[in-house]
């Protein structure tokens, strides 16, 4: 994936939840490379059956590559590109019924990303989304979250083959791992007395993540070895409301270089420490890890 010049996106009326998803996918190498391959092999058509995919290819074209002779850390030079409104993407989304009510109202970034990837899946029949929720009481790190996911569960009074009741063990394990691991941290919970409430608990995450062999089924452990990932994007939610607030994201544009996107505002982060630490004004909501082994 080439080094891409950062460019801001105009908040066209409560579209920050869209902007952070667009920016995150742009800097996700497998996603970028897939769009680039489609761009090179598929002819553009205004009557296309894949309007959403083609609009995202147009979106990709709006971000020029950095000259390899230029200093990629020269932000005074790289940030002179005017922010823009990706109207062609909005137009493609409007053709799909599920997106028509989203623009102009504050929505959930994770939900929008799911719908967006589903829309791409419908057009290309090639993407798969896996979702799995885990209890949060004992979860304080990503590692502990996965430990909870594969934790053995005792099923009492399970009906055995011979008709007698026995205690059985249930366990979920991984059969495969993706190139891009997208993790959604559960930030909202329904409370009967107060309605939907935000969960502020800090879940620690690191710049690297490795799939433990203990999380993989025995039959597939020979296929999944040393599955290592590097953190590429963190999407944050600001505010208290599930139906409101604001979204920003931190993206690793190149090794050792982190950029913060807040609609049209773009800031260079001095170190990844500010990405990994706990924040009072925003909470990590979606994490993108890319496989490196």
UniProtKB/TrEMBL annotation:
Q: Which GO terms describe its cellular component?
A: cytosol; nucleus
Q: Name one GO molecular function term.
A: cysteine-type deubiquitinase activity
Q: What Pfam families would the database entry show?
A: UCH (PF00443)
Could you list this entry's UniProt keywords, alphabetically sorted: Hydrolase, Protease, Thiol protease, Ubl conjugation pathway
Tell me where in this chain the USP domain is found: 7-292
The top EC class is hydrolase
Identify the InterPro entries for this entry.
Papain-like_cys_pep_sf (IPR038765), Peptidase_C19 (IPR050164), Peptidase_C19_UCH (IPR001394), USP (IPR028889), USP_CS (IPR018200)
One biological process term from GO is: protein deubiquitination
Which reaction does this enzyme catalyse, per its entry? Thiol-dependent hydrolysis of ester, thioester, amide, peptide and isopeptide bonds formed by the C-terminal Gly of ubiquitin (a 76-residue protein attached to proteins as an intracellular targeting signal)
The EC number(s) given in the record are 3.4.19.12
Report the PANTHER family cross-referenced here. Answer: UBIQUITIN CARBOXYL-TERMINAL HYDROLASE (PTHR24006), UBIQUITIN CARBOXYL-TERMINAL HYDROLASE 10 (PTHR24006:SF687)
Name used for this protein in its record = ubiquitinyl hydrolase 1
Task: Name the source organism.
Answer: Mycoemilia scoparia
């Amino acid at each position: 994936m080439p080094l891409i010049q950062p460019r801001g996106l105009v908040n066209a009326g409560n579209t920050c939840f869209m902007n952070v998803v667009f920016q995150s996918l742009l800097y996700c190498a497998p996603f970028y490379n897939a769009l680039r391959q489609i761009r090179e092999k598929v002819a553009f058509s205004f009557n296309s059956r894949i309007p959403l995919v083609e609009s995202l290819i147009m979106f990709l074209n709006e971000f020029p590559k950095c000259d390899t002779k230029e200093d990629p850390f020269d932000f005074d030079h790289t940030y002179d590109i005017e922010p823009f409104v990706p109207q062609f993407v909005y137009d493609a989304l409007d053709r799909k019924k599920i997106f028509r009510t989203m623009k102009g109202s504050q929505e959930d970034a994770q939900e929008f990303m799911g719908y967006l990837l589903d829309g791409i899946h419908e057009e290309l029949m090639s993407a798969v989304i896996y979702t799995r929720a885990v209890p949060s009481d004992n979860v304080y790190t990503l590692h502990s979250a996965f430990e909870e996911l594969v934790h053995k569960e005792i099923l009492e009074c399970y009906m055995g083959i011979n008709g007698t009741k026995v205690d059985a063990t249930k366990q979920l394990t991984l059969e495969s791992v993706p190139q891009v691991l997208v993790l959604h941290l559960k930030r909202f919970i329904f409370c009967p007395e107060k309605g939907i409430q935000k969960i502020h608990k800090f879940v620690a995450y690191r710049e690297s993540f490795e799939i433990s062999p203990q999380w993989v089924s025995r039959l597939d452990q020979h296929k999944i070895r040393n599955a290592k990932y590097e953190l590429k994007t963190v999407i944050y939610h600001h505010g208290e409301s599930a139906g409101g607030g604001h979204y920003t994201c931190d993206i690793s544009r190149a090794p050792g270089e982190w950029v913060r996107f807040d609609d049209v505002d773009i800031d260079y982060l001095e170190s990844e420490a500010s990405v990994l630490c706990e924040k009072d004004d925003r909470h990590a909501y979606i994490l993108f890890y890319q496989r490196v082994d």
